[in-house]
Amino acid sequence: MNRRTFIASSIVTSIPAVSALTARRERNPLCVFTKPFQSLSYDEMAEIIADLGFDGIEGTIRPGGHITPEQVPDELPKMVEVLRKRKLELTIMASGINNADDKLNIQQLQIAAKLGVKRYRMAYYKYDLKRPIDKQLNELRPTLDNLVALNKELGIQAIYQNHSGSNYVGAPLWDLRELFAKYDPRYVAVGLDMAHMTAEGTRSWPIQAKLMRPRIGALYVKSFRWENNKRKNCPLSEGIVDRKYPRELLKSGFEGPVNLHEEYINHRDPKLVPEHVKAIRKDVATLKEWLGWS
């Protein structure tokens, strides 16, 4: 089955009913990370995303992404327009941006803001474990000062996703609280990744989640299980992340997007697009149960 034949056969209803659209607007935006669909055209991707019932995407606008930084002036307007035709949005722009000192970074954010994009995911900062941590956090502050100032000027929010690992800024989460303390969360916030938070926090993650609550700008949902003391990504229904937390977060008044990540199938092989669609369809059904939306 070729790509176009699969897409045509997989779309059951591409235009939601009016009542469904109304229901969408009354809840948190639901989006999905589209790294598995980078081999598709914007139209093909948008058809799949609409059929799966999402409100938008976290699209890869970064080196090696669906759109590279250099392509943004020509390609980002095309992607946004295709999404809007299907009543979808670029909910989060997954970028390679973590400073406002580069002209290409500034250009990308200016164009994104002009197109109505409200959020972008930042690139990670990393520690040099041979140097004092406090000193490195202080060294990041001028960079963040400039970036947040640009975000405020443009009216766009930076989202920093916590990531597990020995040298990632944000892995323990307390450091992001300290680093972001003086900034308005409207301009820099945390994309709270449940899987990475669980991997790092194990049993103490509820403390970290509580600590970060005022600064959560988006919820990143995926799961994993431990195999040979290593984290192995898996479907939501088979993993160990807490299924009660997403609904609890929404009940606390959280209004940001809920962002589904499916990362347990090889995203580099275009032939696996049908498998990704099948997996995401299953995961989003599970997620809606967790949220109480089903």
Polypeptide structure, described:
With 294 residues, the chain is α/β, with parallel strands linked by helices. The protein has a single domain, classed as TIM Barrel (Alpha-Beta Barrel), CATH 3.20.20. It is 42% helix and 16% strand. It is built from 11 helices and 10 strands. The protein has helices at 3-10, 18-25, 42-51, 72-85, 103-114, 133-154, 174-180, 194-201, 205-212, 245-251, 273-291; strands at residues 30-33, 56-60, 89-94, 119-121, 157-161, 188-193, 216-221, 223-227, 230-234, 258-260. An 8-stranded parallel beta barrel has the order 1-2-3-4-5-6-7-10, surrounded by 4 helices. Helix 3 links the parallel strand 1 (30-33) and strand 2 (56-60). Helix 4 (72-85) packs parallel to helix 5 (103-114) and helix 8 (194-201) crosses helix 9 (205-212). The radius of gyration is 19 Å and the shape is globular. Mean pLDDT is 93; it is low at 1-24.
